[in-house]
Fold this sequence. Notes:
Layout: E1 14-17, E2 20-23, H1 31-44, E3 61-66, E4 69-73, E5 76-80, H2 95-107, E6 117-123, E7 129-132, E8 144-150, E9 153-157, E10 167-171, E11 176-179, E12 188-190, E13 205-211
Antiparallel strand pairs: 1-2, 2-11, 3-6, 4-5, 6-13, 7-12, 8-11, 8-13, 9-10, 9-12
Amino acid sequence: MIQSDLDLFGPQPQRLASHTVLLPGFALDVIEPLLDALRPVLRAAPFRHMQTPGGLNMAVALSNCGTLGWVSDARGYRYSPTDPLSGQPWPALPEVLLDLAGRAAGTAGFDAFVPDACLINHYLPGTRLSLHQDRDEKDFAQPIVSISLGLPAVFLFGGLQRAERTQRIALNHADVLVWGGEDRLRFHGVLPIKPGVHPRLGERRINLTLRKAG
């Protein structure tokens, strides 16, 4: 591959749709502070497999931090201010995560983004996430900021109908994907994670998805 002059300044943002931008390696400069901030969050609110409204265990383990956390059980999908395991408020959003999400959103063209919810998904090899829309938030005018850590993933990015064709987007450690505007309600998912060992996070992928939920 011939290296272009632009490559000398690091990976460039990639516009994947009208209001969707991939920021390769955008989180690299704050990886260690970010991981340090996540440790107390996950001690207070460990990963767990929630149940779908139909009574099945979700394949992806999850946790949350922020004023609101996404939960699922027989009553349906929704945001809750408390962790159903502990009955306590979810851990606060770390400042390093708030700053990273705000900078990423601004770089993608969404200014003044201040999330109040961060869903933390834990994938093991073989784990997948089926196509879905994010519809549980109150304000669809706000973007979604998704931060990838650990093993690589193939992100499926579709249209406004489930049957529409999907793009396959390679997401690597420290990549940040931002989508909003007319792309906000696109269907999306993750193909099964391929086996591997990441030098920093081992045999896992962690995805942080920040939203304005309330």
